[in-house]
């Protein structure tokens, strides 16, 4: 119980100081769910044992010989009962407020929690004696019961509301009617294009529905369009006092895109007309805005803004499905109802509990609260002081520990309530709601109080640290068969965002450009090296292509680091001195991570990807299974564990160097140029040959300031990264949804962008995916055909 109390306290205090979020860490959520599922049965058994011990000590009677009823339960039994009540109050951190999936919501979790509350009520009101003591335990039980009622009410209201649970289908009707109107301003770009955007931010649920006699569907009365707050209305607001900055506008755009993307998770299609319109909005509108500060590269600033919009969109989506705080319903009305009126109602029930426990005698009820509870009559601090004086005695020591756990749980409950209020106030949901009210109601724009509230929340947002968009880094040459060790998490570099954005812009803008490819198109731009390297992209397995290029890139990276450490720093061979090297190496390690840990997110079938990776891992393990390397691994493994992350440890660096030497020696015995017919070679052998060729190209260009080989690799890895992104099958949609529940992936950010803009792989690859989906009885997403 002490460990559980410490975990709750740490979650509520230290883990949230760096970022305000209504989502619990997935691994911690799993730990809490597992622990709490066993907590009540175990503690109920201990409570029964403690209760029986009390009966035995009084000869089978729960009362003392003097008839005092306060001795009905022993101190140990009362302490266990208090723990059960307090943990039940904290249990909601492991439960999402809105548990929806495909528009359906199960009630099994609600019934289970209601059963726990009923059981605790039975224990309280049938076992605790003394009016004051029963009132204290009854108040805590009332708090737990009202929390359950609150959660059920919020879930049911949200599920039946057109603004939340039923919003995806309503939004499909809305978008269909918007697309029917069309757009005549095809030449507009930048902010002017965003001002014409009719994507709904809020208010579409207030549109009147009218049956269409020509079809069985209803139509929304868009003549009442003034009730809808659109992205265009947000962008058209006057900039009086600079209340709405660029970040606030992009936040509203992210919210509108979140609503559109939710339809994919609710099994609703996105039409081709919508993707064309969104593609134009994102690439011609958002990416054409110029808002740079401090001499920042305009293209990098644009790329950062683009990925910020999509990342915030996925944050909204993740909180909708996995939030343990009702931030989804955030609004000024909900704030009053949930954080003012609801507490008043709860306190009324608490007062009624006190009165009922004393049979209606209010004076006696207030008096007994103090006389029946030593912690209240004596005082917690004085009680702790008395116990500390006798701490050498085992019974006193155990009592002190039990009291400490109880105080820790009480502090956690109080802190959790305050932190929930703070999260609600600082949530992006409330900010979007306030900005929508500001845009929809002109009178609020002239209200000094309302604008002051928005400015205050913005000021608090600016003082909080916010998490960056990150991705995992995995080096296959760095002892990949110890993949159970923690992985390095790295912020996505600005250069990577810029490279991917520029590739997408070129792909969208060029009407005669070819389809997405797995690196061949990138090699075509470097004709000097195309004939030497094109074979590395000709495999039908995307996992094999990724691992081949990953091994080759890793060998080149290791060679450049060694040269930079010896004599070539001034010649520019240090890959850290140029952006292309950073793009190539980080994307290489992230794609390798996807192959190793998330094959379900890649275009190939999971079994094929796992087969390719296991074969590579087995070959590298055999290659490094020399006696000297095993001794070195054993020597350095403790150092790696002390590092906390093996992939940042000296052991990984040493092992990578040794494996690189072995691979380059192996490449010396293989042909210097391969063709598609060399299918007998393994992925490791192909990667070794590719690495040897890349190192040769690097040495040829070592006199230049920036190695051209890194420019080539940056183009190849950017194209490979974009190539694996589009996925329309329901299995991939489900995989991205599960990845979102586990904290999200950078690939999911790119997938959301591709889904909105209709970016797809070539028809041949699409047909193969379609055939695979048909074999599994899965329908495809029409926007990506």
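-> sequence recovered:
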């Amino acid at each position: 119980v002490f460990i559980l109390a410490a975990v709750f306290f740490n979650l509520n205090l230290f883990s949230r100081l760096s970022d305000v979020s209504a989502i619990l860490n997935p691994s911690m959520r799993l730990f809490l769910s597992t622990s709490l599922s066993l907590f009540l049965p175990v503690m109920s058994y201990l409570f029964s044992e403690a209760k029986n011990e009390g009966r035995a000590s009084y000869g089978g009677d729960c009362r003392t010989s003097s008839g005092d009823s306060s001795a009905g339960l022993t101190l140990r039994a009362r302490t266990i009962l208090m723990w059960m009540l307090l943990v039940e109050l904290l249990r909601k951190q492991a439960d999402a407020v809105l548990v929806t999936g495909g528009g359906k919501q199960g009630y099994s979790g609600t019934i289970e929690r209601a059963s726990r509350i009923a059981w605790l009520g039975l224990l309280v009101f049938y076992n605790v004696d003394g009016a004051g003591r029963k009132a204290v335990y009854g108040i805590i039980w009332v708090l737990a019961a009202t929390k359950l009622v609150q959660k059920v009410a919020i879930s049911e209201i949200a599920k039946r509301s057109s603004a939340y649970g039923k919003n995806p289908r309503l939004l499909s009707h809305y978008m269909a009617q918007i697309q029917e109107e069309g757009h005549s301003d095809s030449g507009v770009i930048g902010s002017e294009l965003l001002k014409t955007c009719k994507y709904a931010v809020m208010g579409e649920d207030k549109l009147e529905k009218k049956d269409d006699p020509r079809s069985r569907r209803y139509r929304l009365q868009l003549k009442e369009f003034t009730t809808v707050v659109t992205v265009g209305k947000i962008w058209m607001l006057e900039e009086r006092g600079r209340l709405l900055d660029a970040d606030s506008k992009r936040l509203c755009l992210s919210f509108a895109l979140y609503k559109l993307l939710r339809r994919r998770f609710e099994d609703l299609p996105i039409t081709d007309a919508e993707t064309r319109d969104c593609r134009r909005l994102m690439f011609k509108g958002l990416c054409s805005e110029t808002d740079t500060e401090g001499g920042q590269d305009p293209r990098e600033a644009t790329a950062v803004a683009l990925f910020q919009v999509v990342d915030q969109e996925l944050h909204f989506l993740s909180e909708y499905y996995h939030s343990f705080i009702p931030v989804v319903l955030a609004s000024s009305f909900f704030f009053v109802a949930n954080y003012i009126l609801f507490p008043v109602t709860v306190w009324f029930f608490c007062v009624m509990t006190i009165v009922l426990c004393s049979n209606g005698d209010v004076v006696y009820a207030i008096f007994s609260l103090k006389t029946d509870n030593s912690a209240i009559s004596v005082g917690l601090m004085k009680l702790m002081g008395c116990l500390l004086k006798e701490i050498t005695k085992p019974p006193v020591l155990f009592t002190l520990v039990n009291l400490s756990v109880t105080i820790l749980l009480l502090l956690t409950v109080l802190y959790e309530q305050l932190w929930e209020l703070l999260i609600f106030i600082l949530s992006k949901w409330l900010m979007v709601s306030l900005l929508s009210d500001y845009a929809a109601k002109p009178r609020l724009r002239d209200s000094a109080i309302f604008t002051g509230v928005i400015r205050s929340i913005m000021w608090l947002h600016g003082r909080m640290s916010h998490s960056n968009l990150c991705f995992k880094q995995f080096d296959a040459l760095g002892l990949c068969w110890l993949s159970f060790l923690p992985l390095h998490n790295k912020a996505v570099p600005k250069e990577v965002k810029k490279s991917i954005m520029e590739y997408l812009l070129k792909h969208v803008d060029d009407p005669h450009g070819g389809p997405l490819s797995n690196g061949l198109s990138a090699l075509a731009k470097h004709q000097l090296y195309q004939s030497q390297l094109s074979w590395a992209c000709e495999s039908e397995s995307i996992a094999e292509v990724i691992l081949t290029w990953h091994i080759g890139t890793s060998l080149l990276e290791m060679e450049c680091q060694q040269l930079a450490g010896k004599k070539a720093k001034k010649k520019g061979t240090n890959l850290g001195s140029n952006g292309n090297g950073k793009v190539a190496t980080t994307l290489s390690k992230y794609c390798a991570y996807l192959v190793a840990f998330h094959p379900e997110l890649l275009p190939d079938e999971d079994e094929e990807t796992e087969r390719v990776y296991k074969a590579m891992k087995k070959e590298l393990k055999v290659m490094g299974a020399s006696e000297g390397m095993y001794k070195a691994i054993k020597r350095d493994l403790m150092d790696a564990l002390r590092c906390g992350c093996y992939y940042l440890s000296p052991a990984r660096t040493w092992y990578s160097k040794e494996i690189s030497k072995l691979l380059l020696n192996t490449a010396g015995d293989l042909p210097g140029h391969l063709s598609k017919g060399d299918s007998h070679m393994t992925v490791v052998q192909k990667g070794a040959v590719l690495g040897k060729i890349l190192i040769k190209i690097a040495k040829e260009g070592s006199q230049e300031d920036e190695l051209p080989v890194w420019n080539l690799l940056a183009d190849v890895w950017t194209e490979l990264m974009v190539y694996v992104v589009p996925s329309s099958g329901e299995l991939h949609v489900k995989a991205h949804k599960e990845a979102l529940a586990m904290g999200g992936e950078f690939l999911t950010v790119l997938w959301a962008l591709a889904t909105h803009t209709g970016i797809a792989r070539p028809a041949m690859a699409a047909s193969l995916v379609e055939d695979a989906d048909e074999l599994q009885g899965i329908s495809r997403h029409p926007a990506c055909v």
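The chain has three domains: 2-160+345-416, 167-329, 472-724.
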